[in-house]
Design brief:
single chain, about 525 residues, alpha+beta, 2 domains, three-stranded antiparallel sheet, 18 helices, about 40% helix
């Protein structure tokens, strides 16, 4: 199977029809019934496959300048043109067969063959283990696989096996002693500008060639193996050896291979336990070994937002408890600096906001990992409100004020609800983050409603105070509603009216206090 020539990517057309396509077919029938999105059987596969397509375009079809980029966005290239461009890397994208295989260790089979029988057996894993959320190791031994159960995945078709392999290498979490994480750490957050077509979503995340080459990596390292590390023996991390940006071409950010894996293809046929394809060749097992490539920074991926520490070292965002929403606007969409670190949106998001265009959506997704354990897959879309260059700075200033005010109000709400429910000084155990999460969720519609109104007022050079006052009113209403709901939780006889009244007063003082109003620029 070849991942350039074969039809293996499930995609949905605007009409709703789902087809299996080769990568170069993403612009097929664009003027009649274009493909709008990936339609894989798992959401993490959707996230991986869109990055696969973006990586191919950035590697083989990057525009020379912004004019060319805009032209291709308006008038997508025909599939034939993409096929010609992608065929230049076809030999590097064989999933099976002898020799180099896509995202698979070149010499692993020979190394394992030289081990004793027991050691060889330890290197062979069921194909289900390549899926990030599948319980393995200690979870199975302790019988703690309560939510994601063992045994439901035993066989994968080549297309799903290839996608699972790329998903693992792209998101690779820590996997025990010597099993390396991905180039952005385990479970990175990816942010893309979402268009109404699959081509648009991919192309909006492709940078001009010169801009991309100025990013992380060494353009002088331009052999095929510098781009696609599986074409040469793995640069292992034995004896502490790391792989820095100086050791690889910039495009390796899309094709990084931290794990030593080789799929074991056999003559077995059956049903794919993920996509349901029948009477197909299935993959049941794979080989693996620790001490793969250790990517040591400072790497920066064009599809991820970053924290920049005071020493200038970038650290990628990772999804955390509570989901992804407008509270993450500062960093995902808009740069911010709190004096201790700077937050920067992904390069592709910053470029789109800089060049301007229509209001679109931001697609953010990724695994929330607790070391080896996947706690949650987050997948979120939010509106992107664009504005003209002359008001961008003022718009950003006011949006930052809206979010910081909401942060203050959420903190006050959580603190005063806790005071209403528990005696002062009592030891309270438990996680109260659900209160702030609820606050952010309930105020999110109002935030995205306010942005276009704020833009319109600034564009007319009008005073933004009415928007800020309206936002303050919304924060107060949300905080008071949540307080009233949660402060009455539990047995009525256990409630302390005095404690609740004092907490209510404290909440009102915080919501109408100097700090919150100054943040919004209100008197």
């Amino acid at each position: 199977m070849n991942l350039i020539e074969d039809k293996w990517i499930p995609a949905r057309r605007r009409s709703g029809k789902i087809e299996m396509i080769a990568p170069w077919e993403i612009t097929d029938a664009f003027d009649r019934d274009p493909f709008t999105q990936i339609a894989a059987p798992r959401p993490d596969f959707n996230g991986a496959l869109i990055q696969f397509l973006i990586g191919l375009l950035q590697t083989c079809f990057a525009p020379q300048n912004s004019q060319e980029w805009r032209q291709e966005l308006r008038l997508p290239p025909p599939p034939g043109d993409l096929r010609i461009a992608f065929l230049t890397v076809t030999p590097s994208f064989n999933l099976d067969g002898e020799g180099p295989r896509f995202m698979q260790d070149l010499t692993l089979s020979e190394e394992v063959a030289g081990l004793e029988a027991k050691a060889q057996e330890d290197r062979v894993k069921p194909i289900a283990d390549i899926l990030i959320d599948i319980p393995t190791g200690k979870t199975l031994r302790d019988n703690t696989d309560f939510f994601v159960k063992r045994g439901y995945i035993e066989a994968l078709c080549p297309a799903c096996a290839g996608t699972a392999l790329f998903t693992m290498q792209t998101n690779a979490p820590s996997g025990g002693q010597g099993h390396r994480t991905g180039i952005r750490g385990g479970g990175p957050l990816t942010t893309l500008v979402l268009a109404d077509s699959l081509w648009g979503t991919c192309w909006l995340s492709v940078l001009e060639r010169s801009e991309f080459l100025r990013g992380t990596g060494n353009p002088a390292k331009n052999t095929p193996a510098d781009q696609f590390p599986w074409l040469a023996p793995t640069r292992t991390s034995e004896e502490g050896r790391g792989t820095t940006p100086e050791d690889a071409h910039p495009t390796q950010i899309f094709w990084a291979m931290p794990r030593r894996i080789r799929l074991l293809f056999s003559n077995a046929t059956g049903v794919c336990d993920l996509c349901g394809k029948k009477d197909c060749a299935v993959v049941l097992k794979y080989l693996t070994k620790n001490l793969g490539t250790s990517y040591t920074g400072p790497w920066k991926h064009s599809l991820s937002p970053y924290f920049i520490a005071q020493d200038g070292v970038p650290s990628p965002f990772h999804p955390r408890l509570g989901g992804i929403g407008y509270r993450h606007w500062l960093g995902l969409v808009q740069s911010s600096d709190d004096g201790r670190s700077r937050r920067e949106p992904a390069a592709v998001v910053a470029r789109y906001l800089r060049l301007g265009g229509e209001d679109v959506r931001l697609w953010a997704f990724g695994y929330d990992m607790d070391n080896m354990k996947a706690r949650c897959w987050y997948d979120s879309c939010m509106p992107l409100t664009l504005c003209s260059p002359e008001i961008q700075e003022n718009f950003a200033f006011h949006v930052s004020a809206l979010i910081r005010a909401a942060d203050i109000a959420a903190f006050e709400t959580r603190g005063q609800v806790r005071k209403a429910l528990f005696k002062q000084g009592s030891e309270v155990k438990g996680d109260f983050s659900f209160i702030t999460s609820r606050f952010w969720q309930e105020t999110e519609p109002g935030f995205f409603t306010a942005l276009p109104h704020l833009r319109a007022m600034l564009q007319k050079d009008e005073d933004a105070t009415p928007i800020l006052e309206s936002w303050h009113k919304l924060l107060v209403q949300a905080a008071e509603a949540i307080f009233n709901d949660l402060s009455q939780t539990g047995a009525f006889e256990a409630a302390d009216p005095k404690r609740i009244a004092l907490a209510w007063r404290g909440l009102r003082m915080g919501l109408y206090g100097k700090k919150l109003k100054q943040t919004l620029g209100l008197r």
